[in-house]
Amino acid sequence: MRGMKKASPYAIVGALILAMAGGTQRFQNCYAQTSSGAARSAGGRQASAHHRAAALPKTAPQLVIIDTDIGDDIDDAFALAVALRSPELKILGITTEFGPTELRARLVDRYLSAVGRTGIPVAAGISTPQPNVFTQAAYARQWPARKHLDAVTFLLSQIHAHPGQITLICIGPLFNVQAAIARDPADFHKLRRVVMMGGSIYRGYDGPKTGAHRPPDAEWNIRCDPAGAKALLASGVPVFMMPLDSTQIRFGEPELGRVLAHGSALTNQLSLLYQEWSSATQRLTPVLYDPVTVAYTLRPKLCPVTPMRLAVDSKGFTRPVAGAPNVQVCLHSDEKRIKRLWLDRIIGDSVPRRVVTESGASRNAK
Asked: E strands along 149-252, which residues?
């Protein structure tokens, strides 16, 4: 048991949240991005790339880069929290995506400083128009501005330095990915794989009040940059997609209250960001789409994938079509076990002493 101590404001917020319930739906207003990407066959090159994705030694930590539009919805902050507490992952860097990317990078700077992880490089991506609300901008502006690394240059340099080893976790629109492919498709192809949140195959955004399943939608990340999604699926890199079908995991009570009341350096940051998000959106219960990508990276069996061929249209719809597969898609996930994994990592007394690898083997965590 922990010793008695004065209740922190974060604990008070958590206690209040334990008595609340609410609903949320991910922001769905986005501008139309109509530029198209070149298409090409996903035949032998795609198959060999998928073989490469499974060919690394299973005992070493996975090298990952996280590409995020953190600061709008709250799920990016939770995804980063789970990744930071997972010794199976070695985070080579965090790149920011979409809208005011320098301000997003300042948010990441503050977050990493608060949890003692300033050794992780932060790079700012391509700045774009942003029609939605940057709900956590106040948190970011409390940290000093600085000039960050260029995200596309950083990404390509890391891929070049670690060919066939890096998992790129994409939890935002794909402008940085699109630019990296255009700049150096050969080096980009040396990624081990991309694990992404995006797409809507058979299930759209759930009803905001009833939670009822609805027909497929143009999902946010793809809708913001359809050309980026087209370029990625044509790149020959193994892509593992976590679409709306498997990522609409409501993180309500009692889990949310336990996190917000926990009182660690990490959960204090989540509490601050959650308060800004909730105040801006008037929502209480977040839907944690993005952390499913981290859950898959850690425990693939929680999100079994199916090979599919998807076509991306100019409005951002991702539709199954005939032909050779160009993506592995998780259509159903084990929500109960994923939530347990998230909680174990975010509020567990310690990170796992032994690292469970993708193959199910274990080793001592460093």
From this structure: 149-150, 166-171, 193-197, 239-242
Angle at alpha carbon of residue 109, lines to 253 and 13, rounded to 5°:
25
Segment 303-322 shows an average pLDDT of 98
Residue-range domains of the chain with CATH: 36-204+211-348 (3.90.245.10)
pLDDT for position 344: 97
Structure tokens given for 289: 């789409």
What is the C-alpha R_g of the chain? 19
Both tokens assigned to 293: 């990508």
The rounded distance, in Å, linking the Cα atoms of 187 and 361 is: 31
Contacts of 213 (CB under 8 A, 6+ apart): 203, 204, 206, 207
Cα–Cα distance, 95 to 173 (Å, whole number): 12
Average pLDDT, the chain: 86
Q: Is the pLDDT of residue 205 over 80?
A: yes
Q: Is the dihedral of CA 233, 235, 236, 239 positive or negative?
A: negative
Torsion 193-195-200-203 (CA) sign: positive
